Amino acid sequence: MNEFFAGLGKRWRIAAERRGAKIDEPDLDAAVALELLELARVAAHTKERRFAPLASYTAGVAAERLRAAKGADSAAIAEYIREVREELEREPPI
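and the corresponding structure tokens:
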């Protein structure tokens, strides 16, 4: 997606190697990134500001599980995150 995230992906791979695990460097698709940012915005403005990073984390875990279970591609993952974000947006703020 950009230099920061490319470098971050490399850091995740190297940190995993230090723990004896071999992983591919995680990449960030632009459409998925946009949906994650929107999810964080919704969580911060309709629930609690501090929930934004944790909402993004759980989205990542769920997206990986969907990918593993169904072979979902980036477009399907972006739609998956959008669906849940839109459900949250329809709920009244706390």
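(Above: one complete record from the training split.) Residues 28-90 form one domain.
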